[in-house]
Amino acid sequence: MFVLELSFGDDPDRLAARPAHRERLQALHKEGRLAMAGPFSDDSGALLVFDVPDAEAFAAILDDDPYYRTPGVTIVSQREWSPIVR
């Protein structure tokens, strides 16, 4: 599994790109590659948990979604995670 933490800025491009991004997230969830995702309660950023087999699959997901390169969206951290309870 991989965890992605995002930080959000005030750039209006972020809000314009969000609907397409959320559609991608829904598709990933249906495919079983996204365990959970959502914004922090203060909308300062978001946390996403991907259930993919390796770093290459995780990188491909990030590369496929332009939201992660949109002004106003900053990747704070991306880490492999080994949960002991699921």
From TrEMBL:
Q: Known Gene3D superfamilies for this protein? A: Dimeric alpha+beta barrel (3.30.70.1060)
Which intervals hold domain YCII-related?
12-81
User: Which residues are listed as membrane-spanning?
Assistant: none
The record ties this protein, via InterPro entries, to:
Dimeric_a/b-barrel, YCII
Family to which the UniProt record says this protein belongs: Belongs to the YciI family.
Q: What is this protein called?
A: YCII-related domain-containing protein
From which source organism is this entry? Answer: Micromonospora acroterricola
